[in-house]
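Quick board copy: two proteins, each given as sequence then tokens.
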Amino acid sequence: MGVNQAELLPEEKLAKMFESWLSQQRIDFVSPEAAKAYRDRVIRIRDVIQLKVPDRVPVYTNMGFFPAYYAGISPEEAMYDYDKLITAWRNLILELQPDVHGGSAIPGPGRAYEILDYKLYLWPGHGTRADTPYQCVEAEYMKPEEYDALIQDPSDFWLRIYLPRIFGALEPLRRLESLSSVVEMPFTGAYLASLGVPEVQSAFETLLAAGQEAARWRRAVSACNKALLEAGFPLFTGGSTKAPFDTLADTLRGSRGIMVDMYRRPDKLIEAMERLTPLMIRMGVAGAQSSGRPLVFIPLHKGADGFMSREQYKTFYWPTLKKVILGLIDEGLVPYIFAEGSYDSRLEIVRDVPRGRTVWHFDDTDMARAKEVLGKTACIAGNVPISLLNTGTPGQVKEYCKRLIDVAGKDGGFIMTSGGVIDKAKPENVQAMIEFTKEYGVY
């Protein structure tokens, strides 16, 4: 009789997830050497996460559109020509040979966004130049008086209020009746009738067309990832989610709206974040369990130094983020927390997590202090400046990486990677970061 997953302790669940990631049964490696390299890389990452001393410092390529520039194609081509997309990403990883990579899904399916008239972002050739990355368009896509609607029924809010605001083609979904009305036959007719409105039907047809396009993109991305797996290069994270504060602040209320809310409606803001917390946990768990990889990516945006005070961070940001982190850990997963910007004043706060169960990726944080404060609790990653990779020399990159390894890499617990996502950089500098780490970062 098999063991019920729910009866396992968190550390037992994690062991099973790491074993799933290590398993080579479903991978048709191109050679025995590729199979060994794959296993060595996963073990290296597992050991560094659990604060064991690995054979050497692992190196991760934290890529945005860099593979496109490297291949001589534009970001627009990467979002619309899937053959060019996967060729560029595959060739870059095979040439630079990092320990782990983030896959080729970052650019996204431009044509699907176009079909839906996506308003939340400008992307290459559709609001930004063809040779530039995408940009978020902040606005109050959720009004302050709509907190109660979100709290009472998040899915209904997303379907009938939020989606019609961020996708022009889905504006007719505002006319749908609430799904919660489908409780008895006498009430069900009204909901079904709302599906019969021609504009609503057209919106669903457009959504299906976007889904078909996204499926074509996903098949291409999966083929790229599969080829890299067979060559011995594991994907890094298996799922993703967000801090509840950022879920509200990034794309619902916007920066201005959320800052006002901290003063004018703090109780309602906290209630909404508590409501979103189990949804954010479930989102991360679903992705990781589906992929069989234990790391869950959590980008942190609005919690950085300078956005809010330390006391505000402790009141509004950390409590629900901590619940998401602990919820993922309870399910045998490893939160990979990308602390964008500076987190110098947050280090003592975020130390309050189980030992050897998280990775903190720092962008512009003092890595000596990060190692001092977090080194016995969590693996840390980062923080090679993307400005250095873009404007420096290979010698300067090697010098910076040496200091990082000497300080942050002491006794393990460190992953070498760039501080931010790499879009434009000198190829020789990225190569220097990877090759120097392999040479100098040996324990």
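And the next:
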Amino acid sequence: MVIKFSEKLMKKFGSIVLDTIDSLYKKKTVNWRLDWRNKRLVTNIQIWLKEQIANPSEDMLLLARKFEKYSTHDRKIMSILRWVNKNVKYKRDKDVWEIEEKWQTAEETLQKKTGDCEDGAVLIVVLARLNNIPHTQIKLTAGSVIGGGHCWVEYRASFDGVTRIMDWCYWFSPSPTHKRKPALQDTRYLDRWFRVNDVRGYGKFKYCMKK
């Protein structure tokens, strides 16, 4: 079930609504192997993202400023998504790094202008947070989709509080936020392994009914 809030309510109490929804998820530590050259090394993705957002390069800040002109978070995230799709070329880790898996930092992706699914997704999250989109609205997400494993961004819209998928590579869509279907209704995305941003990791919804 998807619960939508009216635009009138969101304009008046949007930050309270989003904070409340965010608090209803159990906290989760998300550790992941980001570089298969050392398969024993796992990284806390929350801290990894936090360090990138806290220490952006001049090039990253210059790019981030391109999106400041958009008046709403919903417009900013769509502009960021379109920019990444247009300017980053999809390339497999094996072709670039000669290993099966290597998560690039946002800075590496910006400089190379190439990357696979998680690399573009990380860049989107970093640019969004540098543009003051609250952590309650954006999550780096990994999971199973039709065809295998994948990484994308989930964005909780300002105008109705419903999450939409921002996928820069597999199933990119330029449609504005209000014309995108809710994430839970997109059957191409089968399962979530984890959701995380620079503030917290997300476990299950605290009040899910047991089957």
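Board note added afterward: The beta strands are 25-27, 31-32, 43-44, 89-90, 114-115, 138-145, 148-156, 163-166, 189-196, 201-205.
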